[in-house]
Each structure stands twice: as structure tokens, then as C-alpha cells.
Amino acid sequence: MGVKSKIKHLVSFLLHGEARPVYAEVSYLRADNRLAGKKVIITGGGRGLGLAMAKKFVAEGAEVLIAGRNEQTLKDGASLAGCKYLKLDVSNPSGFNTFIEEASKILGGANVLVNNAGISLHEPTFFDVTPETFDKQIDTNFKGAFFLTQAFIRHLKDGNSKGNVLFVSSETGDTMDFRPYGFTKAAVNSMVQGLAYLFRKEGIRVNAVAPGITASDMTGIKADGSLNAGEYATGRFYLPEEVAETAAFLVSDASGCISGQIITCNNAQTINARWK
Ligand SMILES: NC(=O)c1ccc[n+]([C@@H]2O[C@H](COP(=O)([O-])OP(=O)(O)OC[C@H]3O[C@@H](n4cnc5c(N)ncnc54)[C@H](OP(=O)(O)O)[C@@H]3O)[C@@H](O)[C@H]2O)c1
Predict the structure, then answer these.
(1) Ligand 1 in contact with 220 (CB < 6 A)?
(2) pTM of the model
(3) Could you read off the pLDDT of 251-260 as tens digits, one per residue?
(4) What does the pLDDT look like over 133-166, one tens digit per residue?
(5) 233 found inside a domain
């Protein structure tokens, strides 16, 4: 029995007076093996949310390659997750085509890209933002993700393959910010919708998870008592594993009819409510 059975439904209907067959592919996926056949590149997969996704995806049957700047972090992450790794600096687009080719060779044909690598420089005030901090965050979170996605989709199209791209946005992408970090995530959200629409007829889906405040090096929050947060909907911040669950669904065929969506993982914390 295969890990997932795809049932082809043949539907006939009358159009302009003649019967036309319509095929719809519906995926019935078995829990714990929802990502069989997925060959996933995760940027920034050596630690934090990226590593949690790598572990989850491998547990769901995917073959995964994590990428980042630090070889030791990647080695450690790959051994924890049971995956492959390759060095990459997402703020330097010059080597992206070569990277995608190499990663694809290692995986035997990449069909999912997760743009997770990101930085937040936490400038304390508006006046602490400098051209350097501005460029660094734009180059990593936005420009890098754009050009890596361009190289990846070119690779899919060259191979006449279907696939999907998942961005890791943020709840800040949909709320106000006075720092570049939030601007990069708002730009990512626009890109998700634009690319999803552009490739909607080519079997290429593009979505995002937009996490709330989550335990990681970026936030300095640990998976212990420091998760407590009275002001949050849940009374606590999130674990990377919770974001990874949503991410697994979005890269799986179970979400085959979902594209251009930004799924916020914060229990409605940033909903624009009519009454508070
Ligand atoms: N934690 C949160 O509360 C939260 C909330 C919303 C969204 N997010 C988003 O989630 C994503 C992951 O963040 P995290 O919380 O897991 O942060 P993290 O623990 O600091 O991890 C960041 C990851 O990005 C990689 N990275 C940074 N710059 C890179 C570059 N130039 N090239 C390649 N890789 C690079 C790092 O790898 P190396 O340093 O080894 O290169 C690391 O693996 C980010 O996009 C972040 O904006 C996080």
C-alpha cells in the first residue's frame, strides 16, 4: 500500500452542449507519512523554527536539506533531524542557481522550498535604524527569499515539475511596525500572493506561515517558564514545533487547493477585532 493514495475523480458535465471530462486529483494522506515524496530545502534549518520544521518533515516521510551560513550548526541540526545540509548565505544571491542545482542533486530533485532564514536586529527605537541595519534585514528576509524563490521556480519549470514554496513570514507582516523587520515581512506577504497568482495554473503553490512570538535564538525565549505571556491569547508564547505542524500541512498535498495564503499562528492575537 502506497503512503498516499491519489484517487482520480472523473467528472463529466455538459458544456456548450457536449460532454467534457474533468479530472480532479484528491490526495488522501496517512498521518505520519503526509510528506512522502517531498524533497524539501529549508533555509535557516540548522536551528530555531527551521530545525523544528526539518524534524517534523522528516518524521512525515520527507527528504530534507537544511541550509545556512554556519557549517557546525548545520551538521548538528542535520544529525538531530536526520537530513542533509548545504552551506548558503541567503543575503548573497550570486550563487543561488548553483545552490539550487546542488541541493536538488543531493535530494534527487527538490520540489519544495521553505524560505525560513531570517534576522531581526531589534533596533530599540525608530532613530536607531541605520542604512546598514535596514539593508541587512531587507537583504536576508526579503531580497534573498525573492531571488532564491526565483531560482527554485526556474528549476521547477525547467524540469517541468510541480512543487510548492513556503515562506516564514510573521505576525508583524500584518501589523504596524517602525522597523525594517516588519517591513520585510509585509513585503513577503505581498510576494506570496503575487507569486501564487502568477503560477496558479502551473501546479506551483506559494503560501506562508506567520508565527506569533516563538521560542528561539531570535527572541531569546526558551521552552521553559519564559514562555509565559499574560498579554498573549494563549497566556504564553509559542513553541517552534507548533509552527512546524502548520508548515507541514501547507507543504503537503493535503493543502493542494490552498495557495496565496498567509496562515497566522497566534490564536487570533493580532486580529483586527471590532470589539476588544
Ligand atoms: N521566533 C519568532 O518569534 C518568530 C516570529 C515570527 C517569525 N519568525 C521568523 O521565523 C524564521 C526563523 O526564525 P527563528 O526564530 O528560528 O530565528 P533563529 O533561531 O535566530 O534562526 C534563524 C535562522 O536563520 C538563519 N540565517 C540567518 N541569516 C542567514 C543568512 N544570511 N543566510 C542563511 N541563513 C541565515 C540562521 O542560520 P545561521 O546563523 O546558521 O546562518 C538560523 O538558522 C525567521 O524568518 C523569522 O523572521 C520568527
Answers:
(1) no
(2) 0.94
(3) 999 999 999 9
(4) 999 999 999 999 999 999 999 999 999 999 999 9
(5) yes
Q: Does the beta carbon of 86 sit less than 6 angstroms from any atom of ligand 1?
A: no
Distance, CA of 81 to CA of 53 (rounded, Å): 9
- Told to judge if 238 belongs to the known catalytic residues of this protein, a careful annotator would answer no
Torsion of CA 6, 162, 147, 142, to 10 degrees: -30
Domain containing 224 equals 35-265
Spell out the residues 6+ positions from residue 130 whose beta carbon is closer than 8 angstroms to its own: 123
CA angle 120, 125, 128 (to 5 degrees): 80
> Do the domain assignments include residue 16?
no
216 lines ligand 1 (CB under 6 A): yes
CATH number where 206 lies: 3.40.50.720
Q: How many domains does the chain have?
A: 1
- Which residue has the least CA distance to atom 43 on ligand 1? 44
Q: Using the atom order of ligand 1, give the atom closest to the CA of residue 74.
A: 40
Cα–chain center distance at 156: 17
Q: Give the ligand 1 atom nearest the CA of 77.
A: 43
CA distance 234 to 269: 9
Return the top range by mean pLDDT from 1-10, 30-39, 96-105, 216-225: 96-105
Classify residue 29: in a domain, yes or no.
Answer: no
Please tell me if the CB atom of residue 44 comes closer than 6 angstroms to any atom of ligand 1: yes
Cell of 261: 495564503
Report whether pLDDT(223) > 50: yes
**pLDDT given at position 181:** 98
2 has pLDDT over 50: no
Burial of 202 (0-12, 13-18, 19+ CB in 10 A): middle
Is 270 a domain residue? no
Contact assessment for residue 242 and residue 265, using Cβ atoms and an 8 Å cutoff: yes
